[in-house]
Amino acid sequence: MAENKKVLVAEDSSVIINLTKNVLMFEKYVITAVKNGKQVLEKLAKEDFDLILMDINMPIMDGIECTKMIRTLSDKKKASIPVIAITGNYKNYTLDDFKKAGLNDYIQKPLDYDKLLATVKKHLS
């Protein structure tokens, strides 16, 4: 069997982190969670991930700014990692805004965990 895919979850809500972990771990994904964009960049510097679920509204560094920084990394593999936005105020952004920031997809809150799983699988297959 192939190695389990590693997903980095960037989300400042513990409730959403726990629910997301439970859904994705059921599918055998290896989950690491952080609370802000700065921590995403710190984790990414030390480890490889197959996908990032990125909350847009986080303290310290938001998901848009963090994704833009990921896209400029010198490590091409890390710079091209799929990043899926998780957002509650998607009305403030268009899919075009997300694409310009380098995000591959987005899921709106409140999270539909079937859609979350389907979106993750789509980008990891």
UniProtKB/TrEMBL annotation:
Source superkingdom: Bacteria
Coiled-coil positions: none
Residues with 4-aspartylphosphate modification: D55
UniProt keywords, alphabetically: Phosphoprotein, Two-component regulatory system
Residue ranges annotated for the Response regulatory domain, each copy included: 6-124
Spans traversing the lipid bilayer: none
Gene3D superfamilies assigned to the protein according to its UniProt record, in alphabetical order: 3.40.50.2300
Keyword Phosphoprotein: yes
Protein name (Swiss-Prot/TrEMBL): Response regulator
Source organism: Belliella filtrata
